TrEMBL record:
Transmembrane segments: none
Domain AAA+ ATPase: from-to ranges: 34-172
Gene Ontology terms: biological process: DNA repair; DNA-templated DNA replication
Keyword annotations of the record: ATP-binding, DNA replication, Nucleotide-binding
Name recorded for this polypeptide: AAA+ ATPase domain-containing protein
Molecular-function GO term, any one: ATP hydrolysis activity
Record-linked InterPro entries: AAA+_ATPase (IPR003593), ATPase_AAA_core (IPR003959), DNA_pol3_clamp-load_cplx_C (IPR008921), DNA_Rep/Repair_Clamp_Loader (IPR050238), P-loop_NTPase (IPR027417), Rep_factorC_C (IPR013748)
GO cellular component: DNA replication factor C complex
Length: 319
């Protein structure tokens, strides 16, 4: 069975991570001290979940894998379990002792900023009562949604967004290892549309690998976005260069008729304008301002395809 690229290239140990050496040294010290109450902060795709996995792998490095399973409780916040879950399951897990000599148990709470304050208070109470027996490792995107009493009880590690040079280096490494026939312009394009998300870049590279052919910028623009950037190029050319509102409207409705919502179109067009090298920065600012205005209308008032006509008309008046 083939392993997905995300699984294949996920760092397993600290040495495979591209983060500040200071943090790696800190984590190694915390493992030696047997004190891993940690809060990892970072944007989407910054490597938070991968780092949590690496911390576990390092901590239980020489331990039999079968023994580790009963020592870890991973809480998934994609669905809110409710306060009773935190009161009962956490308490039961924390009260039972670790079966691994000289090792504590571990609770992982990914995206702690998603759960409500009451549930966070239960989590904080567990930290106070059971830190002698359990490590509490959590991650979040927005620290303002994490109660202060949890932050004050945790060692905070803030992951910086990957810079383009690092993303390019990782991309090239995967391209070479997987023997993907792709030009540098296409790699740059993929990095630019990924919003600094390494996860997104790896997903795009896997898609291109499956295609099994030489990848040029044309294939990249077609395949590596929810809506083909080639269609947005045509749309922009019609209203921006030709001032042909009628044909531009026809083009954007062709996209809509493929099943995309108005919000899908606006979000993707926003991404396209950001990275387009065919539009001067001054015009980009004006275009993005109008797109954002229509996004706000759809969020606060309504979503109606007729607004795509109004959007195109307003864009065509930019000077």
């Amino acid at each position: 069975m083939q392993i997905s690229f995300l699984k294949k290239y996920q760092p397993i140990f600290f040495k495979e991570f591209i983060i500040e050496k200071l943090y790696i040294d800190l984590l190694k010290t915390l493992i030696k001290m047997n004190n891993l109450n940690i809060l990892v902060i970072g944007d989407h795709g910054s490597g938070k979940s991968s780092l949590l996995s690496a911390i576990i792998n390092e901590y239980y490095k020489n331990v039999n894998k079968d023994s580790i399973k009963d020592n870890i409780l991973s809480i998934n916040n994609l669905k809110e379990q409710g306060i009773q879950y935190y009161r009962n399951e956490l308490k039961t897990f924390c009260q039972t002792k670790s079966l691994i000599l000289n090792k504590k148990k571990i609770i992982i709470l990914d995206d702690i900023d998603i759960i409500n304050e009451q549930s966070q208070q239960v989590f904080r109470n567990c930290i106070d009562k059971y830190s002698h027996n359990v490590h509490f490792i959590s991650s979040c995107l927005n620290t303002q949604k994490v109660i202060d009493s949890i932050q004050s009880r945790s060692i905070i590690i803030k992951l910086k967004p990957f810079d383009k040079q690092t993303l390019y280096k990782i991309s090239k490494k995967i391209v070479i290892k997987e023997q993907i026939d792709i030009d540098n312009e296409s790699i740059d394009f993929i990095i630019n549309i990924s919003n600094n998300s390494l996860r997104q870049i790896i997903n795009y590279l896997e898609k291109l690998k499956i295609l099994n052919k030489k990848i040029t910028i044309k294939e990249s623009r077609t395949l590596c976005s929810n809506i083909s950037f080639c269609e947005f190029e045509k749309y922009t050319y019609l209203w921006f260069e030709k001032k042909n509102v009628k044909d531009a409207v026809k083009t954007i409705f062709e996209i809509y008729d493929k099943g995309y919502s108005v919000m899908d179109i606006l979000d993707c067009y926003f991404s396209y304008i950001k990275i387009s090298n065919k539009i001067d920065e001054c015009f980009k600012y004006k275009i993005i301002k109008i797109i954002c205005k229509f996004i706000t209308i759809f969020h606060n008032v309504h979503e109606n395809p007729v607004e795509l006509v109004l959007l195109t008309n307003e864009l065509s008046k930019i000077k």
